[in-house]
Amino acid sequence: MRSELQPLVSVLTPVYNCESYLSECIESVLAQTYQNWEYCIVNNCSTDRTLEIAEAYAKKDKRIRIHNNADFVGVGQNGNIAFRQIASNSTYCKVVHADDWLFPECLMKMVELAEAHQTVAVVGAYSLVGDRVAWDGLPHTSTVISGREISRWTLLGKPYVFGSPTALLLRSDLVRASESFYDESNSHRDSEACLRILRSWDFGFVHQVLTYTRIREGDGRTFSKRYNTYLPNNIDRLQKFGPTVLSQEELSARLKYYWAAYYDYLAASVFMAREKEFWAFHLEKMESMGYPLSLPRLTIAVCAKAIDYLFNPKRTVESLLKKIR
Fold it and tell me: In this structure, is residue 125 part of a structural domain?
């Protein structure tokens, strides 16, 4: 793609206290083979050297600018603040989290695919997550998939291919169309945004490792794993998006499967004596989905779990040791 014909890409990095990794992230943007980009680093009142590092790079390259939040905000709100910084004339938008980075061909490969297929609004690719390749599962011949089909794929529990925000390229006009692109109350706001867009657009996928996602203690995934936010999220997005892409039989079967798994998980949590905040989170999630916690159903699940523990002691001990480790 000739540089003078390259559409503008707005690259965004929302950041809070990430001095250890920010330079590597910024350097990966500077190393892109694609050259027509502008880069906004959104500093969420960091208390370490994050701002100092960002300012040093901004002085060296006029394509880099910094937005400093006046007040500290939550992760979802900071993401929306970042999206509101994209250039008014940008065609595409690319998030790269401050502890992640991009391979040199990332922007070029993603933009080339989107430009070749004007119905594509979301572009994904393989990512190196820690030391493993993730977001795979699509057949290698699948480069452009209809929004309906990839939504069905996702809701039916097939391999997840959206990845994290770092792994995606979005059309800027769709981001600009909403004052709040993310649902800030949803810890899986990025996948929900993809499903919302794909109601009307197609999904593109580059079969190449183009991004790196770092695994570290204290990031958003830590909370999601500790509280298992994935289970209620699966139910929530089935209710929101399932009726338009799944048959009634498919939708009913998936909801039945996930509700059973959810109550089984909550029953196991009873025996683990989870903290008050854990139960407050799940009670609120169930209320918000229109299905308050059923004490009779939880009691039945607890009894079933107790019987399972009693008659499968070896598996019970192994499971407890695994949790302790």
Answer: yes
